[in-house]
Amino acid sequence: MSGHAPRDPNPQTIMNRSTISFSERLRGFLRHRLVASPAGTLLLFVQRSPLVKMLLPEAKLVTSAGLGEIATWTVATVAGLGAYDSVAGATTITQLAPTRGSTTVKATTGKNLTFVFQLSGYPDTPGSWKVTGLPAGLKHADEKNNTIDSVSGTPTESGTFRINITAYQKSGYSGDRFSKSFVMKVAQGAPADPPEIDVLQPAGVHLVDGRSGAKFATTRMGRKSGPLKFTIANTGKGDLTGLNVTLAGSGRRDFKVRQPSARTVAPGASTAFKVFFKPKSKGIRKATLRISNNDPNENPFDVKLKGRAKP
């Protein structure tokens, strides 16, 4: 008679032993292998994940020889989904409005924007949200205990902005978190109450953009002429902003500009600047005076300059 213990012929006993063995060995594998690995932070999620709950009851179908492969597959699957993922899908923050599913948010200055986003694939409802990188004019709603949050308002500055959104597990911006970035592109819109630039030289004479000119008296080379004074008036309903005067053209180095005393002019107000002629070469010298501003149809405002230099 053999010295081996008799085998239990009951199939249910064999299945129970297999289940216990698999459960214990899988948890042991996850505990010892993951803690020391880069995926160690996933241990808690793996242990409570529906994936493990799904596998363990079926362990009776897996032999001990396949344990390593199944455990490796389990870890790889959960790690691939992300620290906050479940079997249903990966954790992500998705734009719901104005363009559903896009990572780009389009807006226009002067126009109202409502940017709505949602966290999905996360095991808990976020306790708090944080949004950074917003352009001026926009405000974060800062929802509490909600999977949906938003940003709204009227942007006042144009450009491209990287918006970073973070959902926190707990209130007070604490606990586990998940972040995602969006690109907000804000186009420059026409002001609701546009300004109207009016350039005068000399006083009382209104110049026409791109057509009018100003002439300097004949000046010796290397000498500086007397100044021509230009007045910038705002006859519109909105602020005239971004005033900056530059020179263009082949003879631009023969003229000098003293910038306006104010860069913003309120409706009904005015500012002034001066231009000098200081020729470096003899003969007729020409340039274009260019006034940058936010007038919707006269930006820049150009004035032709002309002067004669003598030896």
Which helices and strands occur, and which strands form pairs?
Elements: H1 11-35, H2 43-48, H3 50-55, H4 67-81, E1 92-97, E2 104-108, E3 113-120, E4 128-132, E5 138-140, E6 148-153, E7 159-170, E8 174-187, E9 197-200, E10 213-215, E11 219-220, E12 228-234, E13 244-248, E14 255-258, E15 270-277, E16 283-292, E17 301-310
Parallel strand pairs: 2-8, 10-17, 11-17
Antiparallel strand pairs: 1-3, 3-6, 4-7, 5-6, 7-8, 9-12, 12-15, 13-16, 14-15, 16-17
Helix pairs in contact: 1-4
Task: Provide an overview of this structure.
There is one protein chain. The protein is of the alpha+beta class and 311 residues long. It folds into 3 domains: 11-81, no CATH class; 92-187, Immunoglobulins (Immunoglobulin-like, Sandwich), CATH 2.60.40; 197-310, Sandwich (Immunoglobulin-like), CATH 2.60.40. The chain has 4 helices and 17 strands. It has helices at residues 11-35, 43-48, 50-55, 67-81, and strands at residues 92-97, 104-108, 113-120, 128-132, 138-140, 148-153, 159-170, 174-187, 197-200, 213-215, 219-220, 228-234, 244-248, 255-258, 270-277, 283-292, 301-310. Strands 10, 11, 13, 16 and 17 form a 5-stranded mixed sheet that branches. Strands 1-3-6-5 form a 4-stranded antiparallel sheet, with no helix packed on it. Strand 16 and strand 17 (301-310) form a beta hairpin. Helix 1 (11-35) packs across helix 4 (67-81). The radius of gyration is 36 Å and the shape is elongated. The N and C termini lie far apart (131 Å). Residues 1-6, 11-23 and 25-88 have low confidence and may be disordered.
